[in-house]
Predict the structure.
Amino acid sequence: MDNSDSRRKPHVYGKLLMAVILTAFCILILKQSPKFSGSNVFSRHEPGVTHVLVTGGAGYIGSHAALRLLTDSYRVTIVDNLSRGNLGAIRVLQQLFPEPGRLQFIFADLGDARAANRIFAENAFDAVMHFAAVAYVGESTLEPLRYYHNITANTLVILEAMAAHGVKTLIYSSTCATYGEPEKMPITEETPQLPINPYGKAKKMAEDIILDFSKRSDMAVMILRYFNVIGSDPEGRLGEAPRPELREHGRISGACFDAALGIIPGLKVKGTDYATSDGTCIRDYIDVTDLVDAHVKALDKARPNKVGIYNVGTGKGRSVKEFVEACKKATEVNIKVDYLERRPGDYAEVYSDPSKINLELNWTAHYTDLQKSLSTAWRWQKSHPNGYRSPSAMSV
Ligand SMILES: NC(=O)c1ccc[n+]([C@@H]2O[C@H](COP(=O)([O-])OP(=O)(O)OC[C@H]3O[C@@H](n4cnc5c(N)ncnc54)[C@H](O)[C@@H]3O)[C@@H](O)[C@H]2O)c1
Ligand SMILES: *[C@@H]1O[C@H](CO)[C@@H](O)[C@H](O)[C@H]1NC(C)=O
Ligand SMILES: *[C@@H]1O[C@H](CO)[C@@H](O)[C@H](O)[C@H]1NC(C)=O
Ligand SMILES: *[C@@H]1O[C@H](CO)[C@@H](O)[C@H](O)[C@H]1NC(C)=O
């Protein structure tokens, strides 16, 4: 008995020592991981440099906005749950801005209020650009709850977290779909908002939530109502790459490129009997480079206790037929076009009056040549036939 006891003791000490070493090792590792250390560079405000939370930054517009912000020396934290965006876009940005403290990506779902709160607690944001949303008119008519739920709830979560953590500037991505089908063109910010599909209605609800909240706070709010966004980074670093399963609901430029690439047999133009010059819908196409410029100007001019609401469009309407012709020229493919019935939830004619943003933010659209914007986007599409996935990843 004595014998075994004396033999066991060193054994116990050895185990204890091992445990102490392991614990020390773990603490060391945790200390080096930014989440657990007080030295996370994003957890402190940097004087003179604005740290922007870009929600939905893996998506089409959010990634372009992040690129512009980073180029302009802002610090950027992207939060995205990749439900619709692309990790590939994040990787491009990370490669362009690898320096510590410039760009961080956080994979999280904004539908998760606790996750959002943690992100705000651990990071010192100066402003939020809230892009994350589901954003397809056609899909919204098929799955209204998805739209009402996600668009309003995520905006609430963001506002609550901003209020709880003292983040005072919000730039919100709204849409011309909140106007519905006004009688009078062009659309000004005073045009009554009477949305006619769940997407537009949910976006209007989110605007109302923001506006009511802003009345009781000193938040600086800018609401930008985009018209139809096209184009991509002129330097070819980023592009528009929606999930293949969203193709069906996709926007016209994506469909046009898919047709030119032979991924789909041709273009389906929905509705030729609208009361417009050539019977097809009229839209105001705004290049994404101009759009993100509007965001930077809005951020710059945002002031506490002030709300700015701005249309972001070119002020010029183009018919779908015109668009298709520009697309054929840009791609140099004679795309097959089928003319079909109207699609539910579409409106005949929509174009903006951008004079307010022009006057107050000194913003003007510069990329207004439809064919040029499409050529830029086409160059990226052609060199990325699988979107952000590499060709080898595609074959797996
Ligand atoms: N594309 C247009 O023509 C257009 C026009 C008007 C307004 N908008 C608005 O602009 C914004 C961005 O649109 P987009 O075209 O870049 O769309 P997108 O689908 O490319 O990007 C949206 C991003 O948000 C992310 N996201 C969605 N739900 C999320 C969640 N719960 N948590 C975290 N991330 C989430 C997605 O993963 C995606 O990366 C949207 O708010 C949209 O309503 C777009
Ligand atoms: C992303 O967010 C959406 C919207 O809240 C949610 O439905 C989806 O399940 C989330 N996906 C992931 C991978 O977190
Ligand atoms: C949005 O909300 C619905 C619930 O209404 C959910 O089923 C869906 O997965 C959510 N996510 C996205 C990305 O739409
Ligand atoms: C407005 O912007 C232009 C560049 O687009 C610039 O040259 C001009 O100085 C700006 N005006 C003001 C008042 O800031």
